[in-house]
Design goal:
The chain is mainly alpha-helical and 370 residues long. The protein has 16 helices and seven strands. The chain has two domains: 155 residues, no CATH class; 177 residues, no CATH class. The longest helix has 23 residues.
């Protein structure tokens, strides 16, 4: 069967010396699960765009009073055959879509979904509930503000000419959630952010001119005077998080420490502050290309939170730095103005963030863009 075409995360062409590509990984066997990016980029893990969109347009059927009573007595666990139950509503079309997605995932169980249970019913209802709760509602006048442009022609088609309310959901988001639940297993503590995770995410942001132009979208937008501009900002912000996520979990994407990190001045400053072997220790342990970390079942939500947390750390440090509590000229500073700081002097600044070496490396990288 020919796999339907679906839009995937754009892979930027990396021309910067800070970004390299490794050899392609060998194909996975029945005993070798591939990284999440392989599953996300595999078109055979997606339904046809029209089929998926049509299934989302399910307004549901409200329960009768008798059904509501029975539902409440069952502690809201009672199900109706061939339907997804959300609140006091039954959704038959969501069930159909969820069942089809389950069969797609089941066909890739050995490769992408090693933890997928045998119980079809529970899986289908999990997926169906995910569809119902994650989809967003837009009216025809606001349709073009959604981030699923492949659906625009469907909204304008004759089959939906009499409909004003539409449901949208990126099919990739459903796949990511299912990979997190049924993909490669890991302990909860393995998904706690480490310095090398933060370092990888931010070096990706600084890796190319295209990505550096998106740095302002990592800051919260404070000017809310224009709803149109705010909506556009949020859309660009979501797109930035998606791009970083796609690159973060791609085992073929490699980022490097800035060249300045390897110069003698940097080594001396760091060793003087943290000990004679500090530079060597940090260089060997803060590997931003750690394959085991990259292959963990990260979701877009994980990486979005990771980026936000790193920006908060940076702002905390730089606000302190600029108030002359440890140096600086007192000017107001934002994430986008790191290039105004002396990167070598910053190495021996006493940062008010625990485990902060990744901030020093990121600071150097942004100052000396390769």
């Amino acid at each position: 069967m020919q796999c339907p075409f679906i839009p995937t995360v754009i892979k930027l062409i990396m021309s910067s010396s800070n970004l390299e590509s490794s050899e392609t990984n060998p194909p996975a066997t029945s005993n070798q699960s591939e990284s999440p990016v392989k599953a996300i980029d595999d078109p055979c893990n997606y339904l046809n765009v029209t089929e998926f969109f049509d299934g989302l347009q399910d307004d549901g059927v409200e329960m009768t009073n008798e059904e509501k009573e029975e539902f409440d007595k069952s502690n809201k666990k009672k199900r109706k055959s061939k339907h997804i139950t959300i609140g006091y509503f039954y959704y038959s079309n969501l069930f159909v879509v969820a069942e089809k997605l389950f069969l797609l995932y089941k066909s890739k169980k050995d490769i992408h979904f090693p933890r997928l249970p045998q119980n079809k019913s529970n899986c289908v209802h999990f997926i169906g509930t995910l569809l119902g709760k994650k989809r967003s509602v837009k009216y025809r006048s606001d349709v073009f503000s959604v981030t699923e442009p492949e659906c625009y022609p469907l909204v304008s088609s004759a089959s939906y000419s009499g409909r004003e309310k539409f449901y949208f959901l990126a099919q990739k988001n459903v796949l990511e959630s299912c990979l997190h639940k049924w993909g490669v297993e890991c302990r909860d503590d393995e998904l706690k952010f480490t310095e090398k995770d933060k370092l990888r995410a931010m070096l990706i942001m600084f890796s190319t001119e295209e990505m550096r132009e998106r740095i302002p979208f990592l800051q919260p937008k404070t000017d809310k005077s224009s709803r149109l501009l705010l909506d556009e900002f949020k859309q660009q912000q979501r797109a930035t998080y998606s791009l970083v996520y796609g690159m973060f979990i791609d085992t073929e994407v490699k980022v490097n420490f800035p060249t300045k990190w390897y110069e003698d001045d940097s080594k001396l400053k760091l060793n003087a502050k943290h000990g004679s072997d500090a530079w060597q220790t940090y260089t060997s342990t803060l590997d931003p290309n750690d394959q085991q970390r990259i292959k963990l079942p990260w979701t877009k939500e994980h990486i979005t939170t990771l980026l936000k947390a790193t920006v908060v750390e940076h702002n905390k440090v730089m606000n302190d730095y600029q108030k002359k509590t440890g140096g600086g000229d007192g000017d107001e500073v934002l994430f986008v103005s790191w290039d105004e700081r002396d990167p070598i002097k910053f190495l021996d600044y006493d940062l008010k963030v625990k485990n902060n070496v990744h901030l020093k490396i990121i600071h150097i990288q942004y100052f000396y863009i390769q």
